[in-house]
């Protein structure tokens, strides 16, 4: 199998480590390559890769939308989200999927099944590319309300257009999110704020966090972000970013191989390797 990650930059990625574990778990021969493409070389390199022997690949910033014109088909989820993070290659044809949001939801269900018993409220922090996939996945669950907070409220309002369900929603500022924090059972941070080396930053303060609220941060470097440290200090339950990373990778790997893999052994090892 020939797998890979396309993006710029990608040298920091943990994906080769994760997918090598999955290959070993199933006893498959293959390698996961980092394919770093400079923005001005994107079209030429993608056209070259179109004739390669890739089994499949992940695609990350800044190309999750730019890859779409080169695809031969897309899953309904990827079409609705308007972004692709996984491509399956079959008979020289490329099929796009998006496993980001479902990866986070799957990880949350494993650790915090009580969030999915119905009637819970969610605060989504950020309205960028990552939040779009996560918001779409949240809309498939039994939440009563999903609020979207962003620095520019207009961008959050645009994201609300994805909602074709009966789940209530509203676009608010980060300042209003801080004021209303006690209303929420789940807070998901979807921006890059707090990522190394700027690890002391956080998108909002959690002074009004309700005890036992789950705070999930998709940033996985550092393992303990400033937001998660504050959440724990206020009695919140924390969900680390590496869990979404591992579960979205699991879903992608299963699309490529049509075989099931176990993500749990990686969860314990992630912060050790």
From TrEMBL:
Q: Which residues form the active site?
A: 64
Which interval of the chain is the signal sequence?
none
What is catalysed by this protein?
A: shikimate + NADP(+) = 3-dehydroshikimate + NADPH + H(+)
- Pfam families given for it? SDH_C (PF18317), Shikimate_DH (PF01488), Shikimate_dh_N (PF08501)
Q: What class of enzyme is it?
A: oxidoreductase
Q: Which family does it belong to?
A: Belongs to the shikimate dehydrogenase family.
Which keywords does UniProt give here?
A: Amino-acid biosynthesis, Aromatic amino acid biosynthesis, NADP, Oxidoreductase
List, alphabetically, the InterPro entries matched. Answer: Aminoacid_DH-like_N_sf, NAD(P)-bd_dom_sf, SDH_C, Shikimate_DH, Shikimate_DH-bd_N, Shikimate_DH_fam, Shikm_DH/Glu-tRNA_Rdtase
> Know the name of this protein?
Shikimate dehydrogenase (NADP(+))
The family database entries (Gene3D superfamilies) matched by this protein are listed as: Leucine Dehydrogenase, chain A, domain 1, NAD(P)-binding Rossmann-like Domain
Q: Per its UniProt record, what PANTHER family does this chain match?
A: BIFUNCTIONAL 3-DEHYDROQUINATE DEHYDRATASE_SHIKIMATE DEHYDROGENASE, CHLOROPLASTIC, SHIKIMATE DEHYDROGENASE
Cite the SDH C-terminal domain residue spans from the record: 241-265
Tell me the ranges covered by the Quinate/shikimate 5-dehydrogenase/glutamyl-tRNA reductase domain, including all copies: 119-193
- EC assignment: the record states 1.1.1.25
> Pathway it acts in?
Metabolic intermediate biosynthesis; chorismate biosynthesis; chorismate from D-erythrose 4-phosphate and phosphoenolpyruvate: step 4/7
Chain positions recorded as shikimate binding sites = 13-15, 60, 85, 100, 220, 248
Protein function: Involved in the biosynthesis of the chorismate, which leads to the biosynthesis of aromatic amino acids. Catalyzes the reversible NADPH linked reduction of 3-dehydroshikimate (DHSA) to yield shikimate (SA).
- Per UniProt, residues of the Shikimate dehydrogenase substrate binding N-terminal domain are 5-87
Task: Kindly state the subunit structure of this protein.
Answer: Homodimer.
Top-rank taxon of the source lineage equals Bacteria
């Amino acid at each position: 199998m020939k797998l890979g990650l396309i993006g710029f930059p990608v040298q920091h990625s943990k994906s080769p480590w994760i997918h090598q574990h999955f290959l070993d778990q199933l006893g498959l021969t293959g390698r996961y390559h980092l394919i770093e493409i400079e923005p001005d070389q994107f079209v030429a390199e993608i056209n070259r890769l179109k004739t390669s022997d890739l089994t499949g690949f992940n695609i990350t910033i800044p190309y999750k939308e730019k890859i779409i014109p080169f695809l031969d088909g897309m899953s309904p989820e990827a079409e609705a989200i308007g972004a692709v993070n996984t491509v399956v290659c079959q008979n020289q044809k490329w099929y796009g999927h998006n496993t980001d949001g479902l990866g986070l939801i799957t990880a949350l269900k494993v650790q915090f099944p009580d969030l999915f018993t119905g009637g819970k409220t969610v605060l989504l922090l950020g309205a960028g590319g990552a939040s779009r996939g996560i918001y779409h996945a949240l809309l498939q669950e039994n939440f009563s309300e999903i609020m979207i907070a962003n620095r520019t409220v207009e961008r959050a309002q645009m994201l609300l257009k994805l909602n074709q369900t009966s789940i209530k929603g509203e676009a608010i500022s980060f300042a209003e999110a801080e004021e209303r924090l006690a209303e929420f059972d789940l807070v998901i941070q979807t921006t890059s704020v707090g990522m190394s080396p700027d690890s002391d930053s956080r998108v909002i303060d959690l002074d009004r966090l309700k005890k036992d609220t789950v705070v999930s941060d998709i940033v996985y470097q550092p393992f303990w972000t400033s937001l998660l440290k504050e959440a724990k200090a206020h009695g919140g339950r924390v969900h680390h970013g590496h869990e979404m990373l591992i579960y979205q990778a699991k879903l992608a790997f299963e699309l490529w191989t049509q075989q099931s893999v176990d993500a749990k052994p990686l969860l314990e090892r992630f912060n050790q390797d």
